[in-house]
Amino acid sequence: MRLRYAVPALAAAAVLLLSGCVDNSSPSTGGSESAPAIAKDDAAAALLPEGVGDNGKLIIGIDPTYAPNEFKDADGNPIGWGAELAEGIAAKLGLTPEFQVSKFDNIIPSVTGGKADIGMSSFTITEERMKQVDFVNYFNAGIQWASAKGNDVDPDNACGLKVAVQATTFEDTDEVPAKSEACVAAGKAPIDKKQFDTQDAATNAVKLGQVDAMSADSPVTLYAISQTGDALQLAGETFDVAPYGVVVAKDSGMAEAVQAALQSMVDDGSYKKILDGWGVSDGGISTITINVATS
After folding, report:
1. Any transmembrane segments, and where (predicted)?
2. Regarding predicted confidence, which is higher, 11 or 186?
3. CA–CA separation, 88 vs 160, rounded Å?
């Protein structure tokens, strides 16, 4: 369910700039149905860089293919706890949230190119990404593997196995390649990494037996398992906990405005309410920071 926003002219739902096909088979959702109204924070709004929000909108780049963080409802609208946090940021800044749906790897270019004000799509903060943009830390997530029920897989001994990942995620660019390189260095077969455009497709590949396992962020894997009944199981323990960050243009001043908005949500309880509603409060943080990357 969507939040109510105590901001003038925000009675209607967010305007959507949707692209691509709509998946009407979205899984059942959690959500912060009883979340309180989120009021504008004047101090946070005063930090907005010149020109941002002049049209009354906060343009949010999002790839809604990563349930339960960001995905689509049956009508094609972005939902999930990440989407709700983004709406909350807009409310705190006194702006109307407008989602700009795109592929994951197009979000950072959209922010750096001025087409989106922020990117909210479960970005793991890395030193490489911080060369292009600034990040406002808002959550800590680990990596969690899953395999088909009855097919026990050890992420630390996966040499020669087929492993599904969503393209351009941290698991695709860093985690699985590093494991594969370690296999080769030990004289074993590399991991056969299989890239998919969406997390749903990666999960389905495990379910259908096309791959041995999948690697994704912990809240995503746990949600996928809950939505596939007895088809999937955990493979190993959660590891490599790292921060998520909201993407903003580098050295633009936008990071400070988003930081203040999120900290205001932490302080008034609306941040925790959203996380609780989606069952992901274990990854919540109490202090919102800027540019704290995983090593």
Report:
1. none
2. 186
3. 44
